[in-house]
Amino acid sequence: MSPYELAVGLRYTRARKGSGRNTFISFISLMSMAGIALGVAALIVVLSVMNGFQQELRNRILSVASHIEIRGVPQLADWQSIAALAQTQPRVLAAAPYVLGQAMLSAGDVNRGVIIRGIDPAREDTVADIGRHMRQGALRDLKPGGFGIVLGSELARALGVAVGDSVVVITPQGTITPAGTLPRLKTFQVIGVFEVGMYEFDSGLALIDIEDAQRLYRIAGVSGVRLKLDDLFAAPQVARELWQKMPVQAEVRDWTLNHANFFRAVAIEKRVMFIILTLIVAVAAFNIVSAQVMVVTDKQADIAILRTLGAAPSSIMAIFIVQGALIGMIGTAIGVAGGILLALNIGTVVPFIERMLNVQFLDKSVYYISDLPSDLQRGDVVTIAGIALFLALIATLYPAWKAARVNPAEALRYE
After folding, report:
1. What is the pLDDT averaged over residues 268-281?
2. Is the pTM of this model over 0.90?
3. Which of 35, 69, 87, 130 has the fewest C-beta atoms under 10 angstroms from its C-beta?
């Protein structure tokens, strides 16, 4: 591309003063630029928010769940050896045993089905962050033989109990008596309440000491061992390696399998939003086509003069590609800058809009995540900018090709 092609293309981008037709063409070009900028900014912000939701969801799940679980079939009799074997893997940071069982909690006239998890309070803090989500009490208050219980906030609210109250735990394993099989009952005292922000856990999980769980379900071993890794995204690979080394029959599952539906739903929503918002950029690119066709029609005499002075058809194409590409580049640059600024300050902008309009987009009584989280990723920005520039460049090809086919004699016949 020669300097004169670049100079002419840049000159055509600006309209001459006093020319109504050129001003109208420039207005269409400006709207195309604004459309690209709007689409790019919207894409960056929406994908950043979707990334933020995915990260927030993952953090809340992993505050209760673990990176990897080694489950016994039906139980692990010697969990210490299994934990020691797992910790020979360099990425495994900590291991903790657990006992898992189903039960019915009863308080007054209210009954709720729950998952009971027996934990070792000292080890549990090394594999999960549930201790950080305690609203009342602490995990260390769980003592062997104390028969204390920690409830999720929604579960405690449904049962109408608070710290210090008692609940009756009814297990499905019955006790055989001369009168028949009777359900096994045990009274526990509520010593703490946690709130993770996930309804699945806050309404259906209760924690007790692991030794109390073994007595409650009358088992000698444990249900499994929970592991924490130095990199949560390495969990699938580590799980496969550990499964191959297991000396006993056991099931090794990582967090991506245990909660696959949550993350699959977020990924699908992110993909759909990306496709929908990319259409905004595509519409702006179509506006570039219409604006460029009008420019070619208006500049036929100029094109003919350039051709008679020796300009090749490829030079004419380059002139109009420069003009259209410049619109795409400026629009993309504005959109990227605006999108990044908004994505990085979404936590400030959204509350300001809510106060100004006196509305709340995410009501705390309905949504557990009441703030818009944002996680700006460089890969998303590069992909969006690349797509916008590609569409803008493609949009210039037909008008540039049409300009190169202008016949100088026909264009100058009436001049």
Report:
1. 80
2. no
3. 87
